Each structure stands twice: as C-alpha cells, then as structure tokens.
Amino acid sequence: MGNIFTAEARSNRGEAQRNLSEPLRNLCVSAVKDSFNTTCNSNSTLDFLPVKKLQLYKPTYPEICRPLKMPNKMKFNTKEKIKLSKRISSAAGSETPLRDLAGNLSQTARYALNEANTLEIEKVEIRLKRLPKNLEGFRVLHLSDIHHSPFTSLEHITRAIEIANNLKPDVCILTGDYVSHESEYIEPVAEVLGRLESEFGTFACLGNHDHWTDGEMVTDSLRKANITVLINEGFRFTAQDASFWLAGVDDYMVGKTDLRSALRGSFPDEMKLLLAHNPKILNRAARADVDLIFSGHTHGGQIKIRDEEKRILPRRKLRNGLYRRKNTQIYVTRGIGTVVLPVRYQCPPEISLIELRITD
Ligand SMILES: [Fe+2]
Asked: What is the three-class DSSP state of 276?
C-alpha cells in the first residue's frame, strides 16, 4: 500500500476527530450540569435528581458521576450548591460547547473538502491460479468513477493521469462513471484519459452515470481518444508470448449487463479478467469461472464515519478492496471523483496499481 499525498491529511483528520469529540463531551456534561442546576435552583429535593442519568456518563466522567451518598429528601444548602457547581464546572471545561462543536464541525467539513482533492496510490498484489507464467508481475493500472463535473475538476483528473503514467503500468483499465450528469463534461475528460500511457493500451467499460448522461457520446469520445471500450464483449489479450481473455460488461444498474456475450469465444481453461463497473456482478462471474473482476461504483463509501479496523464483525458489503467468491476475486477501487457532495472523509480518491502474481 502506498500513500504519497495524504500523510499530513491523515494526521489532521485524527486531530479533527479529537477536536470534534471534545465539544461533544462538553455538551453531554453541560446537559447534566443544567439538570443539576434546575433541580438545585428550584429548591426541590433530591427525589428528582437524575441520578440514573448521571450514572449513564460514569465511564467517561468519574468526577461528576461519583455516587452521591446523600439521603433522599435532603435539601442543598448554599455551600453545598457552590461546591457541587464547582465540581460540575471543572468537569464541563467549556462554557460554550455548542460554539466549539460548530467550529470543529466546520473544520471537519474543510478536511472533507480537501480530502476529495487528494490522491492516494494503492499498490495491490493479486495472486491468480491461471496467470500465464510469462505474465508474472504484470502491472495493471486501474482508475474508476472519475465523475468529471463541477465537483471533480479537470485539473484533479489530469494530476491523477500524470501520477498513473509515472507508475509505468503494462496496461490501463477504466471501470466507468467518467461524468456525473452533464454531457459537456464528456469530451474533455475523454481527452485527458486518452493521455494514459502503457505498453498495451487502455481498456474501458461504462457505468450507470455514463448511461444517465449519454452512453453513446461517452463511448464515441473514449474511442476517439484511442481507448478500447468493451460493451458486453471480450477478446484474447496477447502479451509477452502469453494470452488470456479480457472482457468488459455494460452496466448492471441500467440493466444492460450481458456476461455470456462478454465471455463468448473464451476457452474454458484460460484466465479470464473482467471489467465491470458494478461489483454486484460477483456472484454471476463466479458461476462463469471468471478469475478476476475490476470494479468501482461504490466510491468506497465516500464518507467513512466508523473506523473499519475497529469493527467487531467484518462488513459483508463489497465496498472497497479485494474480495473473493469461490475461485473469483474482485478488486473494488474507491475511484477518483465524488457524487452528491464534493467531499470525502477517511476515504481518499484512489489510483490502483495491481500487480498480478501466480499463486503458490
Ligand atoms: Fe460513481
């Protein structure tokens, strides 16, 4: 795994999370404090003191959650009220938790906006049983979900292409969603994608957003830029005196996927690589004995609030990374662009460099 741009962003993210949790804590404490004050000021008895509510916070705030060993119906005198108030105030820390929270939320939003403009290189090794010996170490550059639009600038995409070219891949593949919904963004992005460099060229499939914008125009523009678009079709890819079947399916979400057509002409025993925008193809591809699928569509979730590493149960959804179903593996990239909001959080844009290796 490699990260050349976001080391600083990551440490800032950690700081943002810490800053965000502090005012939240203060808010909780403040709520408890208010509850105390209301009770005390009204000269009421301890019958109404929200002891249970206090104990709820006990693990985090031992100062104010110390069990109150006072008999019921006991009234506070002024001295005790001051003492209690001091204890709560010192625990509460800030008198303006809402203001702090708002400030830190806007800071987090700024990080999320910045993160959408970073780029991270993911280097992944995938082991395949049927990889021809001559192709040991074959390097595939994988980009997806470019989403050229007001959210994802041509500058950001150009930077991704420059980085991709510096990685010197053997072949480049693109797995759909080149634009979001405006057709004037199609030609410029196709022209920039046409600058990808590799020994064996660039191959692409279409995504749902391409169809929702103008599937025909996307296909024509990519082909004009010397990119081979595979729409439910495949061919025998020959490289370094070896060969395998390379195919691409049309998008699943718009109901145009035809895997059978894409694999027509392939030999039962040869290695099959498939380009498919939507990872939902996995089960069908496993039944068809595909070796490896390159996919996108999910954007890796785009915003990750929960820390995936701390999950007790692993996520079952295909979100990003490498998964397997029987003999079929799928690599789902987080993609380059954004949709809905121009933000990413704990889920930076990804340039994937996949190295194919023969399994032991
Ligand atoms: Fe997408």
From this structure: coil
Q: What is the dihedral of CA 155, 160, 161, 163, to 10 degrees?
A: 120
Distance 175 CA to ligand 1 centre (A): 9
pTM to 2 decimals?
Answer: 0.72
CA of 146 to the centre of ligand 1 (A): 7
DSSP letter (8 states) at residue 229: E
Cβ–Cβ under 8 Å, residues 147 and 174: no
Strands 138-143 and 120-128: unpaired
Tell how far the Cα of 179 is from the centroid of ligand 1, in angstroms.
8
CATH architecture, domain 116-358: 4-Layer Sandwich (3.60)
- pLDDT one-digit tens code per residue, 137-150: 999 999 999 999 99
Spans of all domains in the chain: 2-70, 116-358
Ligand 1: distance of its center to the CA of 177 in Å?
A: 5
78 pLDDT band, cuts 50/70/90, is confident
d(CA 84, CA 196): 68
pLDDT digits (tens, 9 = 90+) for 249-306: 999 999 999 999 999 999 999 999 999 999 999 999 999 999 999 999 999 998 887 6
DSSP code, position 230: -
Q: How many CB atoms lie within 10 A of CB 117?
A: 18
Separation of CA 157 and ligand 1 centre (Å): 14
Contact between 277 and 251 under an 8 Å Cβ cutoff? The reply is yes
Strand-pairing partners, residue 227, are: 202
175 in helix, strand or coil?
Answer: strand
